[in-house]
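Subject: Sanity check before I submit

Could someone independently write out the structure tokens for this chain? I want to compare against mine line by line before I put it in a report. The sequence has 100 residues.
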Amino acid sequence: AGSGAPCRIPGYLVAGKTGTAETERRLDGRKIKETWFVSYAPHDHPRYAVVVLVDDGISGGTSCAPLARKMYQTLKELPEPQPIVTRRQKWSFDPHERAL
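---
Independent answer below. Compare away.
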């Protein structure tokens, strides 16, 4: 579970790590936080990597993981990529032989 739980999608396992860092920048007298969520999915056969960074967010789990969840919900609905079939070529290092 952990702080990345807001990215949870039933039946689609996302692996991720949240993060929060205070910066030296200030807004209204308080230090601004940088929050992030770094992830990939599906966990057992990764196809996508998503990184969300929110400047002045609350935490990686609260501000970023829900945005990553929305991205994965869209990505998982995309069709599987199809292989591109090209003509096979014979490669040769002989400068006098023509490639087929």
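---
OP: Matches mine. For the report I'm noting this point. The helical segments are 60-75.
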